[in-house]
């Protein structure tokens, strides 16, 4: 299922772990999350490209798992 949402005016925040040299850059939209209870994630190098939208609880569990080291580095 595809839903066309306009995320262009949302407040996007780059991850503090993103590579400052243009490497792995991930952003999330705080505005959308507060309004819709879901977390859009995009590649900051392609801000007009697609965004993946996750349920807020699922995203929170994923981030908590990262912090606890549950996912091995690749």
From TrEMBL:
It comes from the Bacteria. InterPro entries: DUF397 (IPR007278). Residues 11-66 form the DUF397 domain. Pfam families: DUF397 (PF04149). This is DUF397 domain-containing protein. It comes from Streptomyces botrytidirepellens.
């Amino acid at each position: 299922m595809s839903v066309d949402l306009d995320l262009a005016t949302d407040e996007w925040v780059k991850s503090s772990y993103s590579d400052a040299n243009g490497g792995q850059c991930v952003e999330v939209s705080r505005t959308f999350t507060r309004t819709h209870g879901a977390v859009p994630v995009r590649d900051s190098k392609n801000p007009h490209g697609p965004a993946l939208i996750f349920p807020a609880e699922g995203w929170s569990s994923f981030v908590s798992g990262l912090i606890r080291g549950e996912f091995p580095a690749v």
